[in-house]
Amino acid sequence: MLLGLWSISNIIAILGGSPPIHTSRTTCKEILKKSGISDKDILVDLGSGSGNMVVVATKEFGCQATGYELSPYPFLMSVFKTALTKRARVHYASLHEAKLSKATVIYIYLLPKMLERLESKLKKETLKGTKIITRGFPLTGFKPTKVLTLGKEKTKVFYYRKH
Questions:
Q1: CB-based contacts of 117: which residues, under 8 Å, 6+ apart?
Q2: In angstroms, rounded to a whole number, what is the distance separating the alpha carbons of residues 140 and 119?
Q3: Is 123 in contact with 158 (CB distance < 8 Å)?
Q4: Contact status, residue 126 vs residue 101, Cβ threshold 8 Å
Q5: What are phi and psi of 150, to 5 degrees?
């Protein structure tokens, strides 16, 4: 049963444009630390996978965090991981359904095609000053404030602030 759910999840993710790629909690912590996140922030993770970024944001930095995930297996994993965390929420929903107007930090780890589709949503729905973090690939319509190579995976992380 779990193998079937995992297989279906991978098919949904791949057809949706972004295969599941794990981000360790250590890397999540490093990414968020470099962003200057605090307990006053509201983080939204678009394509939150198994919930590591949401868990780290709430437990390590004390902020409120919400994840959006459409693949069933990672979503269920994130529900399990966040069950006892009051400041964490995960939604079984497309990232296009995400509510961004109250977010102060947005984290995205998706392929370039998906990032391209998200840019107009980010420009339209986020407030001035919102921090946007992408891992692996840049947003072409935004100018990064810094680009770092982080984590044991040595991936590029792009930091932006909406003007």
A1: 17, 96
A2: 8
A3: no
A4: yes
A5: -130, 165
- Residue 61: the pLDDT is 98
Half-sphere exposure of 108 (CA within 13 A, CB side): 30
d(CA 27, CA 77): 18
Q: Please give the Cα distance from 13 to 83 (Å, whole number).
A: 23
Under 8 Å between Cβ of 49 and 74: yes
The answer to whether 45 and 98 have CB atoms below 8 angstroms apart is no
pTM: 0.89
At position 153, the amino acid (one-letter code) is E
Let me know: does 105 contact 130? Beta carbons within 8 Å: yes
Closest by CA to 105, choosing from 127, 86, 135, is 127
For residue 71, the 8-state DSSP code is S
**Structural domains of the chain, with CATH:** 2-15+23-161 (3.40.50.150)
The pLDDT assigned to 84 comes to: 87
